[in-house]
Design a protein that fits this description.
The complex is a heterodimer of chains A (172) and B (94). Chain A is mostly helical and 172 residues long. Chain A is built from 8 helices and no strands. The chains are: A mainly alpha (172), B mainly alpha (94).
Chain lengths: 172, 94
Amino acid sequence: MNVPAAVQTGCDFGDLVREHRAMVFSVAYHFLHDRELAEEIAQDVFLSLHKNMSGLQSPAHAAFWLRKVAVQRSIDAARRRTRRPQVALEDVREPATRPAPGDPLLGELLRKLIATLPESQRMAMVLRYQEDLDPTEIAEVMGIPVGTVKSHIQRSLGLLREKLARRGVGER
Amino acid sequence: MDWLEEELRNALARKEPSPDFDGRVATATRHKANVVMMTRRWIAAAAAVILVIGAGEGYRWRRGEAAKEQVMLAMKIAGGKLHRVQRGVAEIRQ
């Protein structure tokens, strides 16, 4: 990026990479459940950012832009993958011991169960619980109606509760 | 927020990419910038070559046209002179 544009918008490419790499990488990683592919996508997203620096209006706009592009690229990558979904429900084995709430094993189980959700529901869940976005913001990023986002989240939560209950993980 | 939502927040907490990520992004952006610069240079060089060839061809065409005009003029002059000579010969015969 040229210096006058950076000064004007307050956006420096290096700073944006440092500030948002975890967000961009995690959106792809939690959605695809594939670390290597997630890194490739994150790198690609930042290359696009570098190309489009002149179009950025503010650091907040840059964050919104990065999140939106990360979501789009992750969905595209998932669609390009030959096997879909990458993690099938039958592959998610029951843990040897029943994980209790707060247990790292439960975290891993949840990530695997999320990976079995349909694309749109999975992305809504990632944006809701990783990025802490509300349904209106998720709808804006994903380009779908707010009602659809709400139903995706409710349906996914219901499904996760059911699957966890079947594995003996329930209310505290 | 219920226990499941709390667990989901923990499970989906942001993670950092590998430590060399920033370096790889910097290398990739530099590489891309170099490719763009080289592409622009090649386009400029190709445009210059086309311009030189075009100008040369234009110059040759104009020279050809000028030579053609000179030949036509010479033929007109020669034709006129020949016509006068033919008329003179015809008059002498009569």
